[in-house]
Amino acid sequence: MRVAGLLLAAGAGRRFGTPKALVPLDGKLFVDSAAELLRAAGCEPVVVVLGAQAGEVRAQATLDGVTVVDNPHWETGMGSSLRTGLHAIGTADAVLVLPVDTPGVTVGALHRLMELAEPTVLARATYDGEIGHPVLIGSGHFAGVMASAAGDQGARDYLKANTVRHVECADVADGADVDRPEDLRPGIRRRTGGA
């Protein structure tokens, strides 16, 4: 099964004070760490969607071995970035969708979802029973997700309307979103860590 990786990194990060793609952690920008994580897990291709300060992100980030696309409508929310990224994926059996602001996600968590990959699958990581990221979307759902993705909901409405497998990942990753600088608590795992 060919599993693509889709990194959503277009937001302005208003609560953080800067686009989260540009936030450094352990000497790397969030966007580089997340892209490297998807590549390390074996995702092919890896598509990175940029929006806010896209030129600055391109100037500062490495983004090796990935396809970078701009979402001209990024201000409308995550839904437009999801649509932009799915259009850019091309042929794949499934896609792992990861927001740039979840630095505690690990290869171990990605592999748990990737094991379920097939065109009909919908699955998402949970952390101690709380739903989180990444989300695995089979290719048979791409059209439905693109049709329903709007605003900041992303695929939420589509996932609510369909059967989704929940995959517990708290033992191998930290699924917390980093919305504000104080959320970068000590001990948060680096993306490439974990089993």
Automatic annotation (TrEMBL):
It comes from the Bacteria. Pfam families: NTP_transf_3. Keywords: Transferase. Residues 5-162 form the MobA-like NTP transferase domain. GO terms for molecular function: transferase activity. This is NTP transferase domain-containing protein. The lineage of its organism: Bacteria, Bacillati, Actinomycetota, Actinomycetes, Pseudonocardiales.
